[in-house]
Recover the amino acids of this structure.
């Protein structure tokens, strides 16, 4: 931040130079200093190292390496599960995949059905009734559903997938909002790609991820995407229902960056010309 103010002070000093020459208060006095002014404008842009991802640098942050990804997500209330039961008898399969009139399931084109996890962490499955999935990941949920169906079926195949694959990203990205995920977990860079990448003002060293927990609480992570060591770590992946917030850098408040030359430069130059006109 001190560097930014130093550059602004230098810029103001350059603009004031023409007025220190009492013998020449004309427009030529400003033109004479334009080369130095352009140099100041050039160095006043956002440094490239603030914009580059995955830099090779010495980091004091210790990252935990993740070996299992999909098993880490614990189901939460209002999650949706796609469930399909298949047997050798098509009529029997249709019987268990049929949509009950008062259930929360919805038929899809590929014969998968979507069931909402209610506030008690139950799903209401046709003919098997309530199945509690509290504290379960997808594999554990599949096991519980299979156990619930065993009294009715001997040999069957069961498909269980997460249906509510989405995350929310806000702040300095080109396409903020809620976005759908193509798989159960994606990387932070895949999420940024879906959101159209960061703007030049996005604070890449201090992004925040707010992750809801199974007990209803929230955990906040700070992510530095300029550090190459983040790859494969616990902070590298985005889970369903995550909230990503990209803070703006302070240079945005000062107009420094992509619009610096059109913003501050034009304003200060106009001010200088006005002073010249009034003091002639």
């Amino acid at each position: 931040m001190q560097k930014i103010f130093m550059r602004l002070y230098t810029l103001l000093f350059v603009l004031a130079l023409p007025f220190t020459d009492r013998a020449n208060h004309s427009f030529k006095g400003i033109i004479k200093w334009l080369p130095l002014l352009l140099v100041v404008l050039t160095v006043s842009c956002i440094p490239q190292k603030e914009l580059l991802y995955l830099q090779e640098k010495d980091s004091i942050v210790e990252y935990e390496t993740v070996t299992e990804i999909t098993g880490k997500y614990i189901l939460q209330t209002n999650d949706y599960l796609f469930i399909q039961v298949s047997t050798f008898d098509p009529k029997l399969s249709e019987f268990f995949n049929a949509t009950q009139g008062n259930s929360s399931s919805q038929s899809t084109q590929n014969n998968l059905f979507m069931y909402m996890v209610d506030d008690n962490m139950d799903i209401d499955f046709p003919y098997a009734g309530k199945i509690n999935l509290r504290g379960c990941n997808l594999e554990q949920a599949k096991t519980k559903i299979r156990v619930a169906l065993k009294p009715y079926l001997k040999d069957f195949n069961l498909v269980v997938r997460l249906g509510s694959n989405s995350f929310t990203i806000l702040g300095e990205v080109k396409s903020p909002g809620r976005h759908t995920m193509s798989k159960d977990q994606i990387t932070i860079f895949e999420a940024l790609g879906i959101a159209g990448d960061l703007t030049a003002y996005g604070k890449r060293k201090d992004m925040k991820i707010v992750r809801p927990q199974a007990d209803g609480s929230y955990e906040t992570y700070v992510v530095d995407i300029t550090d190459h060591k983040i790859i494969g770590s616990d902070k590298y992946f985005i889970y369903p229902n995550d909230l990503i917030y990209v803070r703006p850098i302070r240079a945005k408040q000062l107009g420094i960056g992509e619009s610096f030359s059109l913003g501050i430069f034009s304003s200060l130059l106009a001010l200088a010309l006005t002073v010249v006109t009034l003091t002639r």
